[in-house]
């Protein structure tokens, strides 16, 4: 029996404008009503894929990815959506799915409101009206996202707390979801952390004290207040590990200016269209609303802690230019087999008799150390050799020839330039500066150039893969490996991509 996928999506802007449950319910009813009225779908098995609160420009949606996996497994032969924007708002990616991916996989795609049914299309293409709609959805997304971002900033300047969960020590006011009040059950923890810091105790030792005294972690309190289950990304064992205070948790608390009663916001330059893309702003550029809520820590004590931070550097964290990845290509990949946390990389220097320095690089687990669990440190050099040999054995890497290096990046850049040019021409067309026919001719020529470049890139990759296989590099790690579990000087397990 054929199976049809009903894809339903609620965007972030939809959540602001209307009730999310009604939106999902309406989409579901709309799709099922269409299928009920069409006799050809009478015997189809229906499978729902629902993404709540995800942007149409983001492909990393849980239900969306799950649906694509089912498509690849040939479990889905037909996909139906209310309109094209529910499936994808990026018109270039949308076109790739409609023109190439789905026809290749033999999947029928239906967008009811847009009158699109791939079964009725000529060849594997999409007509110009559909392409225009894709472009308009793309422009609409950019426009509405900026408006949402602007309106949220306005609300924040009024002191309205918009984050879904306040920091440890606070909770949302039951009578006003945009206001935070002191959480008496956890405010004492924040005060204790600041007191220990003022007493000169390092953030790492503060974490150790909190674990020894079995003080609840921020994630535990969040799960109580929000009724959501916060789980660590760990290897599943019969015994679920207890949430642990870490050096990072303590640093986050000590650096949080909200505890002084000042509401801070817009600490990052973050794209609404691409939430994973952001950069930290200098503190001077943060948004602030003074005396916005009840303080847990005095401004004087907060400033004292910041001075300790600057003097001792024991709280050096995310907002610094510390190039932590340069110690070893395994950094960020090496994990502890006991708690599954990423291992920290440390270097120690020893002076030789001749006066030169010898640097030892090794990995250690700070989480196990905080919990007094024994974990053998690992020499980075030994682990790197084992991982490198494993990669060579699995993929049979060949020595590179410098004269035969494939210049893929410049060609990739050319594609970006051509896509940008296509968008510029469309804007000219919409503004009346370019005729419809000239736009169509220009678009077809650009598409041909893009396809030619893609074919060159694919051919180059097939002829020779560019890899430096003289030693383990971060490029090799990012290409082939998800994580490496190790203890002592032994690699226990490698999770491949």
Please provide a written account of the structure:
The chain is 43% helix and 17% strand. The chain is α/β, with parallel strands linked by helices. The strands form six sheets. A five-stranded mixed beta sheet has the order 2-1-3-4-5, with helices on both faces. Strands 12-16-17 form a three-stranded mixed beta sheet. Helix 8 (203-212) packs across helix 10. The protein is globular and about 75 Å long. The two termini are 34 Å apart. The model is unreliable at 15-22, 228-241, 313-322, 399-408 and 464-468 (pLDDT under 50). Residues 3-159 form the Resolvase/invertase-type recombinase catalytic domain. Residues 167-315 form the Recombinase domain.
Question: What is the strand and helix layout of this fold?
Answer:
Blueprint: E1 3-10, H1 12-17, H2 20-37, E2 45-52, H3 62-72, E3 78-81, H4 84-87, H5 91-105, E4 108-111, E5 116-117, H6 128-157, E6 170-173, E7 176-182, H7 187-198, H8 203-212, H9 218-226, H10 247-254, E8 263-265, E9 268-270, E10 278-280, E11 287-289, H11 299-312, E12 334-335, E13 344-351, E14 357-364, H12 366-370, E15 378-379, H13 380-395, H14 408-430, H15 436-463, H16 474-480, E16 481-487, E17 490-496
Parallel strand pairs: 1-2, 1-3, 3-4, 12-16
Antiparallel strand pairs: 4-5, 6-7, 8-11, 9-10, 13-14, 14-15, 16-17
Helix pairs in contact: 5-6, 8-10, 14-15
For the biggest β-sheet, the strand order reads: 2-1-3-4-5
Query: Ranges with pLDDT <50 over ≥5 residues?
Result: 15-22, 228-241, 313-322, 399-408, 464-468
The major sheet is characterized as: 5 strands, mixed
Structural class: alpha/beta
Shape: globular
Characterize the quaternary organization of these chains. Answer: single chain
Percentage of residues in helical conformation:
40-55%
* Number of E-state strands: 17
Radius of gyration: 27 Å
Total number of helical segments? Answer: 16
Distance between the termini: 34 Å
Strand composition percent: 15-25%
InterPro entries: DNA_bind_recomb_sf (IPR038109), DNA_bind_recombinase_dom (IPR011109), Resolv_N (IPR006119), Resolvase-like_N_sf (IPR036162), SSR_resolvase (IPR050639)
Keywords: Coiled coil
Protein name: Recombinase family protein
Pfam families: Recombinase, Resolvase
């Amino acid at each position: 029996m054929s199976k049809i996928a009903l894809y339903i999506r609620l965007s972030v802007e939809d959540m602001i404008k209307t009730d999310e449950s009604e939106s999902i319910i309406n989409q579901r009813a709309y799709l099922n009503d269409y299928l009920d009225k069409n006799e050809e779908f009478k015997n189809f098995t229906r499978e729902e894929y629902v993404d709540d609160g995800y942007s149409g420009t983001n492909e990393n949606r849980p239900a969306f990815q799950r649906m694509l996996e089912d498509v690849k497994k040939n479990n889905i032969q037909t996909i139906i959506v209310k309109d094209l924007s529910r499936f994808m708002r990026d018109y270039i990616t949308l076109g790739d799915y409609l023109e190439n991916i789905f026809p290749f996989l033999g999947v029928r795609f239906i967008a009811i409101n847009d009158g699109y049914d791939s079964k009725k299309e000529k060849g594997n293409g999409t007509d110009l009206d559909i392409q225009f709609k894709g472009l308009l959805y793309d422009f609409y997304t950019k426009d509405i996202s900026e408006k949402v971002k602007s309106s949220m900033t306005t609300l924040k300047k009024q002191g309205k707390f918009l984050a879904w969960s306040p920091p440890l020590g606070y909770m949302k006011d039951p009578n006003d979801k945009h206001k935070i009040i002191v959480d008496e059950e956890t405010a004492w923890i924040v005060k204790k952390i600041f007191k220990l810091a003022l007493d000169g105790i390092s953030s790492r030792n503060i974490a150790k004290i909190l674990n020894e005294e079995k003080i609840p972690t921020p994630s535990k309190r969040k799960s109580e207040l929000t009724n959501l289950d916060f789980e660590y990304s760990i290897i599943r064992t019969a015994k679920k590990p207890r949430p642990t205070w870490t050096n990072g948790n303590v640093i986050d608390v000590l650096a949080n200016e909200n505890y002084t009663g000042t509401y801070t916001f817009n600490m990052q330059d973050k794209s609404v269209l691409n939430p994973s893309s952001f950069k930290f702003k200098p503190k001077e550029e943060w948004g602030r609303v003074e005396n916005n809520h009840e303080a847990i820590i005095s401004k004087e004590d907060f400033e004292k802690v910041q001075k300790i931070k600057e003097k001792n550097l024991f709280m050096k964290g995310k907002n610094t230019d510390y190039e932590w990845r340069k110690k070893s290509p395994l950094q960020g990949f090496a994990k502890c087999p006991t708690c599954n946390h990423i291992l920290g990389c440390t270097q120690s220097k020893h002076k030789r008799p001749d006066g030169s320095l010898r640097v030892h690089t090794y990995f250690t687990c700070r989480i196990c150390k905080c919990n007094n669990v024994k974990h053998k440190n690992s020499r980075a050099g030994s682990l790197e050799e084992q991982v490198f040999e494993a990669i060579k054995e699995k993929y049979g890497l060949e020595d590179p020839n410098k004269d035969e290096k494939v210049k893929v990046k410049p060609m990739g850049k050319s594609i970006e330039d051509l896509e940008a040019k296509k968008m510029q021409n469309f804007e000219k067309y919409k503004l009346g500066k370019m005729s419809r026919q000239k736009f169509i001719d220009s678009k077809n020529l650009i598409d041909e150039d893009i396809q030619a470049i893609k074919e060159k890139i694919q051919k180059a990759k097939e002829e020779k893969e560019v890899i430096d296989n003289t030693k383990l590099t971060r490029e090799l790690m990012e290409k082939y490996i998800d994580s490496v579990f190790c203890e002592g000087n032994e690699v226990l397990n490698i999770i491949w991509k």
